[in-house]
Write a structure and sequence with these properties.
The complex is a heterodimer of chains A (333) and B (295).
Chain A lengths: L2 H22 L10 H4 L10 H35 L11 H14 L11 H24 L5 H25 L2 H11 L9 H27 L3 H6 L4 H23 L5 H13 L3 H25 L8 H20 L1
Helix pairs in contact in A: 1-12, 3-8, 3-10, 3-11, 3-12, 4-5, 4-6, 4-7, 5-6, 5-10, 8-10, 8-12, 11-12, 11-13, 12-13
Chain B lengths: L5 H11 L5 E2 L12 E3 L2 H9 L6 E4 L23 H6 L4 E5 L3 H9 L3 E6 L4 H14 L2 H22 L6 E7 L9 E3 L4 H8 L3 E2 L8 E3 L2 H7 L3 E6 L7 H9 L8 H4 L3 E5 L10 H12 L6
Parallel strand pairs in B: 2-3, 2-4, 4-5, 6-8, 6-10, 10-11
Antiparallel strand pairs in B: 1-5, 6-7, 7-9
Helix pairs in contact in B: 5-6, 6-11
Classes of the chains: A mainly alpha (333), B alpha/beta (295).
């Protein structure tokens, strides 16, 4: 089978899964709505509660799940390829801790700024992730001319720990309600209730995915080791930088929409590799599509399992992802 | 990661978020203690209201009322009680939250009596007032305070009795400038009790939690006719920002509360501290929901 056919088959299969999730998920929720009323456009939208539930509560939320899941899963694939470490996640290099610190500051000090139609907390969390990425990059850059993945990893892990300490420091000044809200933010929440956060993060994500499309082949070469990749004509330094920045961008965009939702970025890449093999040209699109479907499904569980109250979606991804990942570990021995 | 202790802290905070007071059996309290420390805003207010103020030698870091407390040493609060400071003040009674088990043990080892609070409904406020009266030797005064609080609540009840009761969403926080992370009162706790007395029907009455993270879907489906946003005064907003915050609800145009312009901001400590002033807080709620009953 040629790569072309395999690519087509993979994208079709995982695309169908993602599409099914996106179409079916808004039909289910913690309340029952009449679909006929939802699409009855003779009722003014302001009076139509069913339509509001569908278009204001469920649809943006489903799209947010698909978008965040796709970003995190694809970013996970790229980080694992870049660091040549199967345990790497989108959050390994400090992006999530930077984002969390930003969100914490915005919540605690009640920042009210809005930028590009997004409110203070997502904006601050994105700024935090950008700052963390910049610091890690500067550190990894300083000691070597190219990017040292070892330094990258060490800098990322250390920055994660440092920023977590900073979060506790800021928390000391927060009152109970703020602390609680921050903790809740850390568990992830896709109830965006408007399309604006999605639209705001879309350009960044599209940019990242454009880079991912180009990165598939370089990542395949990088998996042989930087030296072999270089000898096969890859400009390793450029590929590493592109991978680092695009994956960080996708992660930052995802976190600004849904908070640092765990496990998507590590479980999905591994599962997809199991299904389609190690070729990044197949793994990347498959992981993005499957990640989207997976997170839409998890969010569906989060909003219906304990209805009328909700579970944080990060708890669902952890409950499914944690045991599954352990199973993968045992199975591979 | 910061994740390790999350569920535990979250649980404690969930209990905390509304902080009401009820008493539990307490041991080794001496006859009328005269060096009392309270780390709980509501308990501090009670002590001063019943005339035990002169016996108070230390208060919690969040305590601001009555104004006299600003002159007293601050000894931390729920999550960060300063044990050394507490011991150095040589108290003979310390009022603590029931969840502060470490502090309780430390006090026990030092041979200092403690009085434990748990968080519950409005009825516990008056029973705590009476109990603290007995403990501090101001039982007569405490009975008067409790009775006047009950009279205050009864008066509000009478005023709104024959009014139609709006289905109300009682919000105590959401993300700035966005309808995300909305926390509302569930069907238990003193805020729910206050809302009932003030003549509102809690739209989340069936959820037996003090704090509910309300999803957009649930809010639209429950069709609140009034939305009360309450805040402690330390998180007061400038009037312009406050107006902007009420307008974030415009995104949910199908809500009767939004269409009838019944989204209201109430910023007052009396709404969030379940102490002797809780009837005044309840009155603020009632005035917002039934302005015509208070003309």
């Amino acid at each position: 089978m040629t790569l072309g056919t395999r690519f087509l088959r993979t994208v079709t299969a995982f695309g169908a899964l993602a599409l099914a999730a996106i179409v079916l998920a808004p039909l289910v929720g913690s309340t029952s709505i009449s679909l006929r009323r939802v699409f009855d456009f003779s009722i003014p939208f302001g009076d139509n509660a069913d339509a509001q539930i569908f278009f204001v509560a469920r649809l943006p939320r489903t799209l947010a799940g698909a978008w965040v899941g796709a970003c995190l899963a694809a970013a996970g694939v790229v980080f694992q390829g870049l660091l040549r470490n199967p345990l790497a996640t989108p959050f390994t290099l400090g992006v999530s801790a930077g984002a969390a610190l930003g969100a914490m500051l915005a919540i605690t000090f009640d920042w009210a700024l809005t930028a590009f139609g997004i409110s203070a907390v997502p904006a601050a969390s994105f700024a935090g992730s950008v700052a963390a990425v910049a610091i890690v990059y500067a550190l990894a850059q300083a000691r070597h001319r190219g990017l040292s993945t070892n330094v990258l990893l060490l800098a990322g892990v250390t920055l994660n720990a440092f920023l977590s300490a900073m979060i506790l420091f800021v928390q000391y000044f927060a009152d109970f309600a703020d602390t609680y809200r921050t903790l809740r933010w850390l568990m992830g929440d896709l109830d965006v209730s408007s399309y604006e956060p999605l639209l705001a993060s879309l350009p960044l994500g599209v940019l990242a995915f454009g880079a991912f499309a180009w990165l598939a082949r370089p990542l395949n070469l990088l998996s042989l080791g930087p030296d072999s990749a270089e000898s096969r004509g890859l400009n390793v330094a450029v590929a590493q930088r592109a991978a680092f920045f695009s994956a960080s961008l996708a992660t930052g965009a995802a976190v600004s929409v849904g908070g640092p939702i765990g496990f998507v970025g590590i479980v999905i890449p591994h599962l997809v590799r199991l299904l389609v093999g190690p070729d990044h040209r197949l793994v990347l699109p498959a992981a993005a599509l499957f990640g989207g479907a997976f997170l839409v499904g998890c969010d569906l569980l989060a909003r219906t399992l304990l209805a009328p109250v909700e579970l944080p979606v990060g708890i669902i991804t952890a409950l499914i992802g944690g045991p599954f990942f352990l199973w993968l570990l045992i199975r591979n021995r | 990661m910061v994740a390790d202790k999350k569920p535990l802290i979250a649980l404690t905070l969930m209990l905390m978020l509304c902080g009401a007071a009820a008493q539990s059996p307490n041991h080794q309290i001496t006859k009328s203690p005269n060096r009392i420390i309270s780390v709980i805003p509501a308990a501090t207010e009670i002590l001063f209201a019943i005339g035990a103020g002169p016996q108070v030698v230390g208060v919690g870091s969040f305590d601001t009322f009555p104004p006299e407390v600003s002159k007293l040493p601050k000894v931390g609060a729920l999550l960060d009680p300063d044990v050394e400071r507490i011991l150095s003040l040589k108290p003979d009674l310390v009022l603590i939250y029931a969840s502060q088990t470490d502090l309780k043990q430390q006090l026990q080892r030092a041979g200092i009596a403690s009085y434990e609070y748990t968080h519950a409904g409005l009825a516990d406020v008056t029973s705590t007032i009476r109990a603290l009266g007995d403990v501090t030797g101001h039982d007569g005064h405490a009975r008067d305070v409790a009775a006047s609080l009950e009279r205050g609540l009864a008066e509000i009840r009478t005023r709104v009795k024959n009014r139609s009761k709006p289905r109300t969403l009682l919000v105590f926080g959401h993300e700035r400038a966005a309808l995300r992370g909305i926390y509302a009162s569930g069907g238990i706790g003193f805020l729910d009790d206050m809302l009932a007395i003030a003549g509102g029907i809690n739209v989340f009455a069936d959820v037996k939690q003090q704090a509910v993270q309300a999803s957009t879907e649930q809010i639209i489906a429950r069709r609140p006719e009034a939305i009360l946003e309450i805040r402690a005064s330390n998180s007061a907003l400038p009037p312009a920002d406050q107006a902007a915050e009420t307008h974030v609800w415009d995104a949910l145009g199908s809500l009767p509360a939004v269409r009838r312009h019944r989204v209201m901001f109430l910023v007052d400590d009396r709404l969030v501290i379940p102490g002797p002033r809780v009837a005044e807080g309840t009155r603020l709620m009632a005035q917002a929901l039934h302005p015509e009953a208070f003309r």
